Amino acid sequence: MSWEALTAVGTLGSALVVAVAAGAAVLQIRHLRAANQLEAILKIYDTFNSNEMVVARRFCLNELPRALAPESSYAAPLKDIDPRVLLVGNFFNEIGALVVDGFLDERLVWPLVPTAGRLWLVLSRLAHEWRRQRPDPVWADFEYIAALEEHVTQSTHIARFPGWFRARLLPAKPADGEFSAAAAHESQSGA
Fold first, then answer.
1. C-alpha dihedral (175, 179, 180, 186), degrees to nearest 10
2. What is the domain range of residue 93?
3. How far apart are CA 151 and CA 67, in angstroms?
């Protein structure tokens, strides 16, 4: 075997070692990402199930709707808002930001999505009022998480049925002012 052939075999062997090392690095990065997501979602569930958050969610679902009812004189200035409302809204907004920015997979937060949807039905009135007062989209990431329920239900659960049956499963169109992720998505996508 000549020196040139030996050099070529050595170069090929080095390239093979580098390729194997690169593959191992990619695998390690995937495992690291999964470990980071697991750690994050465990912290999210700890916060979600904390006493303070449970009390805040109950307030938002049970007491706040009465305060926000049309016959109520409740005004929602930013400085006088109940801290429990901000705790819930900011919590779901942070989760939404993690999902939208790709730090958490949607499937990891799916168990929280129905709760986010119910809370958004109540808190959306405040968010929309604040959006009229300020130039930034208050709780937009929270709204995204709430909209996931309708999107996933439509695309995963309902879309698998034949068209004639799908119509039976779809809810009636929401009344004016009610939350509808599908209507919001259609208006944004121009559909």
1. 100
2. 50-189
3. 30
